Amino acid sequence: MKGLHFWLGALALALLLPAAAVAADVKVGLMCPLTGKWASEGQDMKNIVALLVDEANSRGGVNGRKIELVVEDDGGDPRTAALAAQKLASAGVAAVIGTYGSAVTEASQSILDEAGLVQIGTGSTSVRLTEKGLPLFFRTCPRDDAQGKSAAAAIARGGYKAVALLHDNSSYAKGLAEETRAALEKAGVKVIFYDALTPGERDYTAILTKLKAAGPDLVFFTGYYPETGMLLRQKKEMGWNVPMMGGDAANHQDLVKIAGPEAAAGYFFISPPLPQDMDTPEARNFLAAFKARHDSVPVSVWAVLAGDAFKAIEAALAAGKSDPEDMAAWLRQIKALPGLSGALGFDAKGDRVGEFYRTYVVNDKGVFVLQPK
Amino acid sequence: MEQFFQQLLNGLAVGGIYALVALGYTMVYGVLKLINFAHGDLFTIGAYLGLTLLASCNLSGMLPLPVAVLAVFVMVALLAALIGFLLERAAYRPLRNAGRLSAVVSALGASIFFQNAVMLIYGARVYVYPDFLRPDFTVHVFGMAVPGVRLLVIAASVLLMLGLSAFIQRTRTGAAIRAVAIDPGAARLMGINVDRVISLVFLIGPGLGGAAGLMVGIYYGQIDFTMGWSYGLKAFTAAILGGIGNIPGAMLGGLLLGVIEALAAGYIAIAWKDAIAFLVLILILIIRPTGILGERTADKL
Predict the structure, then answer these.
(1) Is residue B220 part of a domain?
(2) Chain A neighbours among B 221-250 (CB < 8 Å)?
(3) Which of A288, A308, A293, A307 is CA-nearest to residue A353?
(4) Digit-coded pLDDT (tens) for B258-283
(5) Closest residue, chain B, to A43 (C-alpha)
(6) What secondary structure letter does DSSP report for B94?
(7) Domains in chain A with CATH codes
(8) pLDDT by residue (tens digit) across A230-274?
(9) Which residues of chain A make contact with B11, given a CB cutoff of 8 A?
(10) Is residue B250 part of a domain?
(11) Hey, which residues 81-120 in chain B have their CB within 8 Å of chain A?
(12) Domain span at residue B42?
């Protein structure tokens, strides 16, 4: 028996030795909704970050160390996200990318902060995420108040006088609706209707009937594309031609599929621009590589912002900032790192700097057309 | 007043679908005293199967459109019924003599299984039914322009429900189902094959659920793998509202729930419509603990 133990021990040592001989891989965590209602976003996030990781590794990794991507599914659900964050923390990652929904990111924030890890949110635009003073939290997306101001400016430019605001009670859509209402009141535009619908339903005719009776000259639904598509479709079915606008959660190719090109024509929304509409070399190269691998374009800008988060982490690691405190300090001082969605930089709170909201209009063929600035 | 009738119609169209799905919950509860949580997912599967049949078999190209849609309805109902039958064999029959809690856990497990299976097979992105399937005409009633497809949805739901009622009340097999619902032991002593009746219930309920899924697909266009959850929850509520285990109760509960939601959204606040619908449910259960039509016993079917 003693002999067997000795040989087993020797075998274990022999297996361990080669791993110790080369520099250990550096792990980067990605938390995204691979299942649940936002699964299509999450799967794109994973595809994009995996693509960038492979590209970085084919260039030789960072400082001679390969990058290993550790992906955890948050299911678009705060409870699952808390578990995912704990798993990533114990997997020994250098930093965490993610995630999409604000409420979901919020559930993971304190866990990752206690674990002492840098976290870069990708689609979480709720204002309070960076108002908590967490020193290691960043995000590559803009905040709702920036979007609210841009939305109000677009509404004022369009000359609308009586606006109906509708949200879906998610912390993102509600935040955007509140920020927009405040900005509209300052601009002297009347908000004649303010209410919330239940997301995930199929029939919004009761809501549209009520909206129609209020008689707005513009309907601004701040929620996500599946509900926006249904609203547009059922609005047309009712024969009601009021213009409708949306926020950046409407920026998804499936919107037109759901509504149908006829019902979607004329719908406009404000959003950070997609890589296919950008003219930077980073965006062009990335798009070509993504198309070659997946034979499609990214479904929305949020998945692309996960790629930007990875770019930031990769640059920090390449600069030798692998300690979380150093990495955070380094990220806070960058101002114009070339990212997939344009120049990347963070302010003292960890918010992305720069104004990058643009207006898109859906044309008769159902194509999102970026409007000139 | 026009707005009131408009909202009433909105509610009836939504309620008709709730009622069709609720029938599946209530029939299974009637014979097995089990809430079949996977029923909402059979509804989702119906919607996906319908799209697959329409798109990949190109039925709409070979047959005149109404015939093709009707054929797909029948095929989807049969396929959903088959899946329901297999579900009962795999997940519920082995637990027939176990505690009720085990069967409920098994039902929840089946629901999670179906939902994720649909996601893995079809992917997470939403699917959209082709637009030309939707009948595009408008009917003028009392000076209101009503989309014809909404009237068709209401008519189809009512027709299916009346057909089921006639089957349960007028045929020998229907009598056997009622007998099993009242007392399975006595029914077996009278020579009724209880296992066969339970299988039959698991054919009819999912068949209707699958047909409802197809209807939602054609009418609303957008389907996704989580849609069964919210419809299932509402239909379950409707079944309780009408008196669970009671077939006319499920129909009444479904239509009533749809109308309450529409009126609450129209006259109180959109955000409160679900809260109000559940408040009405609580009030009704306080006054009539067995639901609106569940008077004599909660067991009757």
Answers:
(1) yes
(2) 221-222, 224, 226-227, 229-231
(3) A308
(4) 999 999 998 888 888 888 888 988 99
(5) B124
(6) G
(7) 8-142+277-344 (3.40.50.2300), 145-271 (3.40.50.2300)
(8) 999 999 988 899 999 999 889 888 899 899 889 999 999 998 887
(9) 206
(10) no
(11) 116, 119
(12) 15-228
